[in-house]
């Protein structure tokens, strides 16, 4: 029953406030995810014999993140209500193509900059990045489940 109540300022202004807050929070969310990945990658690289210091490692990752500016086109809203369908489709396709180019360019820069910073070869760097993703998306959730089972089970 509480879900059916309108907010005190009204439904539309409340939705606008919520969407504006989400929009303003996006850079902080991206930065937090970036720093988490950077520190996890540093831990994995150091455990595999990497030689970079923290400033060198973060500078390498910052350089690799630069093509991410091309991802902005992916956030262009649907323009079909105000533009012809062909133009709206062209904008959407071009923005996605730029985002894909930025993603591939950033991935190539990540491999090269981390390899140079840590003194790794290209294949060892690729393995380090894959091992970091496995640690984040497999080992960390399984470790959290195990810790929860151990503490509460």
Question: How would you explain this protein's 3D organization?
Answer:
There is one protein chain. This protein has 153 residues and is mostly helical. It contains four helices and no strands. Helix 2 packs antiparallel against helix 3 (85-118). The radius of gyration is 21 Å and the shape is flat. The two termini are 35 Å apart. The mean pLDDT is 91.
Count of individual beta strands: 0
Query: Averaged pLDDT, please?
Result: 91
The rough form would be described as flat
> Percent helix among the residues?
over 70%
Percent range for β-strand residues: under 5%
Major beta sheet summary: none
Structural class: mainly alpha
Number of DSSP helical runs = 4
Q: What is the radius of gyration?
A: 21 Å
- Terminal residue distance: 35 Å
Task: Please trace the helix and strand order, writing H or E for each element.
Answer: HHHH
Uncertain runs are none
Distinctive features:
single chain; 153 residues; mainly alpha; 4 helices; 75% helix; 0% strand
In short:
The chain has 153 residues and is an all-alpha fold. It has helices at 11-47, 54-65, 85-118, 122-152. The protein is flat.
Q: Would you spell out the secondary-structure blueprint of this structure?
A:
Blueprint: H1 11-47, H2 54-65, H3 85-118, H4 122-152
Helix pairs in contact: 1-4, 2-3, 3-4
């Amino acid at each position: 029953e509480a879900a059916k109540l309108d907010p005190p300022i009204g439904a539309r202004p409340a939705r606008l406030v919520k969407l504006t807050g989400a929009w303003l929070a996006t850079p902080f969310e991206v930065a937090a995810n970036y720093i988490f990945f950077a520190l996890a990658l540093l831990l994995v690289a150091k455990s595999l014999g990497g030689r970079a210091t923290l400033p060198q490692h973060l500078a390498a990752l910052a350089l690799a993140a630069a093509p991410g500016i091309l991802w902005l086109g992916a956030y262009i809203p649907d323009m079909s209500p105000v533009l012809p369908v062909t133009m709206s489709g062209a904008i959407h396709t071009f923005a996605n193509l730029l985002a894909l180019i930025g993603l591939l360019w950033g991935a190539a820069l990540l491999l090269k900059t981390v390899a140079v910073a840590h003194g790794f070869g290209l294949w060892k760097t690729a393995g380090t990045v894959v091992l970091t993703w496995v640690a984040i998306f497999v080992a960390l959730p399984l470790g959290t489940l195990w810790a929860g089972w151990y503490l509460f089970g």
